[in-house]
Design brief:
single chain
Length: about 100
């Protein structure tokens, strides 16, 4: 279903200036989701070893995934605003960069 929506949007934007922005945004979102899931996995693994329990691993993985999803929603909203309001793009790009820097420190 999500892939069908992606294809519909890609078809709609085909041949427009926004097409590459859309594809770049989609690629970036996939990269961030993977990065956050990996971080969640790593966090869960470390906590699981420290506590010597499976519960710590599961908690870290779950929290990392939840955090990744929430971050994806925030980033997606900002990128949608950039897409819909080109005049705000420079400010929104700067905001997104600052958020990324503080989030991944």
């Amino acid at each position: 279903n999500e892939y069908k929506s992606y294809l519909r949007m890609a078809d709609f934007l085909e041949g427009t200036e926004e097409e590459s922005l859309f594809h770049n945004t989609h690629t970036e979102m996939a990269r961030l989701e993977s990065q956050l899931e990996n971080q969640g996995y790593s966090d869960g693994y470390v906590k699981g070893q420290e506590d010597s329990t499976q519960g710590g691993f599961n908690d870290g993985l779950l929290k990392g995934s939840e955090l990744g999803k929430k971050w994806g929603e925030v980033e997606g909203s900002i990128k949608a605003e950039m897409f819909l309001n080109a005049h705000l793009k420079p400010e929104l790009e700067m905001l997104l960069e600052e958020l990324n820097e503080s989030f991944f420190e």
